[in-house]
Fold this sequence. Notes:
Strand content: 15-25%
Amino acid sequence: MGFTCGIVGLPNVGKSTLFNAITAAGAEAANYPFCTIDPNIGVVAVPDKRMNRLIEIYKPAKVTPTSLEFLDIAGLVKGASKGEGLGNQFLSHIRNADAIAHIVRCFDDENVVHVDGSVNPKRDIEIIETELILKDLETVDKKAGDSEKRAKSGDKDTKAEVDFYACVRDHLTGGRLARYCEVSGEKEELLFRDMHLLTAKPVMYVCNVHEKEVGKENAYTKQVREIAAKEGAKVVIISAAVEAEVAELAEGERHQFLEGLGLHESGLEQVIHEGYALLNLITFFTCGPKEVHAWTVRKGSTAPQAAGEIHSDFEKGFIKAEVMKYADLDRLGSETAIKEQGLLHVEGKEYIVEDGDVMFFRFNV
């Protein structure tokens, strides 16, 4: 799995249309609030042009790209945390998501109803953030309640926990996102991570523009960029309507269609690239006549950690890794040529995996 991305946003911002287009999962889309009443889950293969070249070289019996999982949550509205609308009851599904894609409506269309009557990205973002903060407060209160009970029973170690949860609660009550909460020490970091707070997750704003404005900035997208700049968030500008058209085309026709619109890649590819950058992810490959397989790890991962992505036994019994650089393999066209040129590197436990590495692991269980 590459990473899991939870999709949030107000009703009628294009969430389900976009979800349908990029996952072909068939989520219902309609011009009224709450049309998505179940969390839709879709898994898509991560497009990577390097895979095509590796397939050409190895001619494998099986190909396994890395993948991205989308969780589409019913549209949130103001008051969701108090039971308004349907989105609140599904927020727990994105607790374990790696990142959140916040879809923001950045187009005017009198035929598409806006739940609050007008298009205003700043207001819309604040509504969603408020509901996520309120949901996080529920989580913190539950954790704090458990700690307070243990503290009353005489458990002295929980006093620090009670104080920590109180600090987090004060932070959230002030309308601030959890990702800006000050956390110090290993103990606090563990407590913080264990809560899986929604507003602690990295955010990518996906600006949904009219198909006539695809690839362009407008006054609404500029508002989003200003907010993202303050938060250190990523921004992707796409048109859900265009993505829907792209999804209906044959694979060979998509590139030409996008080129005609002045685009070099689809919205899905933009979301994936920004998502990988947001989470500091890279891809390595394992290749052979049986299978060409793409794997995702965090930047800075060691060779044993990468081996562990394949199987935990590989990490435990790691001996060494044989590494080829994709650029060398692409240029020379075979493992034999790589070896003849002395470009096959044998690396140990300290080796830091690089994006595009083609690896073979030696291990002993």
